[in-house]
Amino acid sequence: MILKQRIGAFVKMGLFIKQHADGSYNSEPQLHQGLDEIIQAAYIHNGWFNPNFVKLAIENIGTMLNIADIERLVANREVKVSKTVAVICAGNIPMVGFHDIMCVLLSGNKALIKFSSDDNILLPFFLKLLVHYEPAFESYISFAGNKLSNFDAVIATGSNNTATHFNYYFGKYPNIIRKNRTSVAVLKGTESKEDLKQLGNDIFLYYGLGCRNVSKLLVPQDYTFDAFFESILDFSFVIENKKYNNNYEYHRAIYLLEGHKFLDNNFLMVKESHDLHSPVGVLFFERYNTAEDYKKYIQNHKDQIQCIVGQDYTPFGYSQRPVITDFADNVNTFDFLVTL
């Protein structure tokens, strides 16, 4: 299968997603109805997969799947001899494994996919859709059961604990093994209400479960949170999710029992902490005196930070809107794949 065929199938998928999002489709109504049913099924299976968040994740992927961006990704590079790449997917947010699978297939390699039990409904639909648009892809896609075998390289995403196991089992293969990461926002106290509202997207999309979600604020010494709390009121709906509410109430009880100080608006607790990774329902913050302070903090934690949001960094509201060449952990997946 030539590169043009592979690109064409993904472009068709992007058009399908765009038409589904704006309701402009006149063809393939059964496929669009099927996607609606799949979105509901995914939510029933995993209570974190709010249908609105799922649709947003799908639409963000659709935005990537245009011919200009895909050609920029592949830059006419492809493998000379196809290898089988095992892709072990995470399931913390909807469709999080799609980018890795896309890179494997666009590079000309074969994908041996192990889904997360938390996200094993959405991805199969889109892989079937890909084969629908380009039947030759069928021989390039296979699925792993409990045990992985007959592969040449590995891309695995998980926690720090699972990364240790991945390194043990897959260390002898060419690999990309990812650990826990999270994102931070740098506030200067000059942000507009719109900036802070957009920051709410960085914090609350997917209930804060993604590595690109902001879990820590770096703020000036004299920073007060009144404007921040006022600006994020539109995100109060997160507390309606039973799983989010359970996490919020649990940590609130712990903090009260242990006498910790925190700010609370009845759907988010903001707590001062040197830690980087905050629990669901909690946002950590740390104060700085000078720009050198927060830059030093970022440098010291660079191996744990996925994205930095702020006036001098990723714009507010864009942490969960990566472009096709935004690679997790800043490791170029496509370069890895074409040089196996």
Question: Short summary of the structure?
Answer:
It is built from 12 helices and 11 strands. It has 340 residues and is an alpha/beta fold.
Question: How is this structure best described in words?
Answer:
This protein is an alpha/beta fold and 340 residues long. It has helices at 3-22, 29-45, 51-64, 67-74, 98-107, 122-133, 160-170, 193-204, 226-231, 242-258, 291-300, 333-338, and strands spanning 84-88, 110-114, 141-143, 153-157, 175-178, 182-186, 214-220, 263-264, 269-272, 282-288, 305-310. The protein folds into two domains: 3-180, Aldehyde Dehydrogenase, Chain A, domain 1 (3-Layer(aba) Sandwich); 182-310, 3-Layer(aba) Sandwich (Aldehyde Dehydrogenase, Chain A, domain 2), CATH 3.40.309. The radius of gyration is 21 Å and the shape is globular. Helices cover 42% and strands 16% of the residues. The strands form two sheets. It has a six-stranded mixed beta sheet with strand order 8-9-10-7-6-11. A five-stranded parallel beta sheet has the order 3-2-1-4-5, sandwiched between helices. The protein has twelve helices and eleven strands. The longest helix is centred in the first third of the chain and has 20 residues, at 3-22.
